[in-house]
C-alpha cells in the first residue's frame, strides 16, 4: 500500500491510498457490503452510479456463509462478487460479540455461537488473519477485545492489554506469512480501544502505533455515547497516531459525524447508516434528512435533493419514491440506496476539495448553515 498526504487544512487531511486494486482519495466513506454485496445493489450499480474505490465486507458473516474457503475457491472477494476495486474486511469480533448470546473471551480469542445455526466457533488473532487471507481483502482488520459502554475501568484496562497482546501476535503472524508469499498484496490495520477515557486511549494508541501496521483505526465509538464525547475522544486520540499512515474511524456515522471527524484528522469511515436509513424511508440531502413516508410528499414533483446529481434525483420525484416505499416495491430500496450512498460519497469529495483549497472551515460553516434553512 502506498500512502501520501496531498494537503492539510488545520487537522483535516486530503490523502491518497494506493492498493493493488484501486487508488483511494481521502477523506473516504466506504459503503458496507456485509455479505459481499451492498444491500439492494450489485457490482454494476456500484460501478455505474456510486463509483466507490473501496467497500467493506464482513469477516464474521463471510466466514459463516458461504465460508471463507468457498470465497477463496471462487476467486476471493473480487472474483466472487465481481467488484473490482478495493475491499476492507473487519475482523468479525464485533459481530461475534453483538450477534451471539453466549460469547466467552479468554486470553487466546473469542468463543461464540453462530447466529445462523447455533454452532460454536473460536476466533483467534491468527484465525481471523487466515480467514481474511482467503477473502483476499486489500485491507484487513485484526481481532481486538472490544468493550460495550458503559464499562468499568477494570474491564477497559483488561481490554487494552488483551488488544495489545493480540496486535503483537497478529502483526508477527501477518508479516511471517508475507515472507512465505501469502497476503503479499494485502495490508493490515490495528484498532485502538479505550472507551472515552483519555488515559486509556493514549495508552492503547501509543502501544499499537509502535507496531509495524499499515494503518490504524479508532474502534469502540458510536456505541451509545454522546456525540461530543465521541468527537472529543477522536480529537484526543489522533494526536498519538502516525501522520504518515491512514486513520480510520470505525462505524461512524451521520453526515455531521463525517464532517466533524474529518475536521479532527480522520481519513476513512464506514457505517450502515446510509443504506439502512434508505431502506427505512430516510433520505439524506444537502439541507438535512427527508422522511419520504410523510404525506406532504404525495404529489411533490421535486427530486429528493434539488442540489444532487445522482441518477435518482435526476430522474424521479419525491412523489414516486414515496409511492414505491408505501407499496413496498423492491425498486424503492435500490433507488433510495443509490441516492444515499451518492450523497455520502459526494460529501466526502466536497470535503476533499475544501481541504485541497484550504477552505475547510468555511465549508464546515456552510454545511451547518444550509441545514438551518
UniProtKB/TrEMBL annotation:
Note describing how the cofactor binds: Binds 1 zinc ion per subunit.
UniProt xrefs under Pfam families: TGT
Reaction equation(s) it catalyzes: 7-aminomethyl-7-carbaguanine + guanosine(34) in tRNA = 7-aminomethyl-7-carbaguanosine(34) in tRNA + guanine
MF (Gene Ontology): metal ion binding; tRNA-guanosine(34) queuine transglycosylase activity
SUPFAM superfamilies per the UniProt record, alphabetical: tRNA-guanine transglycosylase
Region (RNA binding): 251-257, 275-279
GO cellular component: cytosol
Any one GO BP annotation for this protein: tRNA queuosine(34) biosynthetic process
Residues reported in the UniProt entry to bind Zn(2+): 308, 310, 313, 339
Cofactor names: Zn(2+)
Keyword Zinc (UniProt): yes
EC class name: transferase
HAMAP family per the UniProt record, alphabetical: Q_tRNA_Tgt
Subunit structure: Homodimer. Within each dimer, one monomer is responsible for RNA recognition and catalysis, while the other monomer binds to the replacement base PreQ1.
Protein name per its UniProtKB record: Queuine tRNA-ribosyltransferase
The organism's taxonomic lineage, starting at the top: Bacteria, Pseudomonadati, Campylobacterota, Epsilonproteobacteria, Campylobacterales
Amino acid at each position: 500500500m502506498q500512502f501520501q498526504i496531498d494537503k492539510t487544512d488545520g487537522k483535516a487531511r486530503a490523502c491518497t491510498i494506493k492498493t493493488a486494486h484501486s487508488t483511494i482519495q481521502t477523506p473516504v466513506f466506504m459503503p458496507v457490503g456485509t455479505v459481499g454485496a451492498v444491500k439492494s445493489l450489485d457490482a454494476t450499480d456500484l460501478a455505474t452510479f456510486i463509483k466507490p474505490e473501496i467497500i467493506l465486507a464482513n469477516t464474521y458473516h463471510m466466514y459463516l456463509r458461504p465460508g471463507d474457503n468457498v470465497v477463496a475457491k471462487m476467486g476471493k472477494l473480487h472474483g466472487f462478487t465481481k467488484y473490482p476495486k478495493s475491499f476492507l474486511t473487519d475482523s468479525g469480533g464485533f459481530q461475534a460479540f453483538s450477534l451471539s448470546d453466549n460469547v466467552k473471551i479468554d486470553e487466546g480469542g473469542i468463543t461464540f455461537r453462530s447466529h445462523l445455526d447455533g454452532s460454536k466457533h473460536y476466533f483467534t488473532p491468527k484465525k481471523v488473519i487466515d480467514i481474511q487471507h482467503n477473502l483476499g481483502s486489500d485491507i484487513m482488520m485484526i481481532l481486538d477485545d472490544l468493550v460495550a459502554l458503559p464499562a468499568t475501568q477494570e474491564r477497559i484496562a483488561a481490554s487494552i492489554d488483551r488488544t495489545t497482546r493480540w496486535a503483537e501476535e497478529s502483526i508477527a503472524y501477518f508479516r511471517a506469512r508475507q515472507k512465505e508469499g501469502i497476503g503479499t498484496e494485502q495490508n493490515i490495520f490495528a484498532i485502538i480501544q479505550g472507551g472515552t477515557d483519555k488515559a486509556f486511549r493514549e495508552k492503547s494508541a501509543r502501544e499499537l502505533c509502535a507496531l509495524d501496521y499499515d494503518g490504524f483505526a479508532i474502534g469502540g465509538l458510536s456505541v451509545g455515547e454522546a456525540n461530543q464525547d465521541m468527537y472529543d475522544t477522536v480529537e484526543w486520540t489522533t494526536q498519538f497516531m502516525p501522520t504518515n499512515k491512514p486513520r480510520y474511524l470505525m462505524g461512524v456515522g451521520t453526515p455531521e459525524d463525517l464532517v466533524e471527524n474529518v475536521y479532527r484528522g480522520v481519513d476513512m469511515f464506514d457505517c450502515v447508516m446510509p443504506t439502512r436509513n434508505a431502506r427505512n424511508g430516510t433520505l439524506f440531502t444537502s439541507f438535512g434528512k427527508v422522511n419520504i413516508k410523510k404525506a406532504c410528499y404525495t404529489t411533490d414533483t421535486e427530486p429528493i435533493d434539488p442540489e444532487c446529481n445522482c441518477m435518482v434525483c435526476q430522474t424521479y420525484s419525491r412523489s414516486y419514491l414515496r409511492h414505491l416505499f408505501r407499496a413496498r416495491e423492491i425498486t424503492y430500496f435500490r433507488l433510495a440506496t443509490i441516492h444515499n450512498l451518492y450523497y455520502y460519497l459526494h460529501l466526502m469529495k466536497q470535503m476533499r476539495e475544501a481541504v485541497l483549497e484550504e477552505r475547510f472551515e468555511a465549508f464546515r460553516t456552510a454545511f451547518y448553515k444550509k441545514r438551518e434553512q
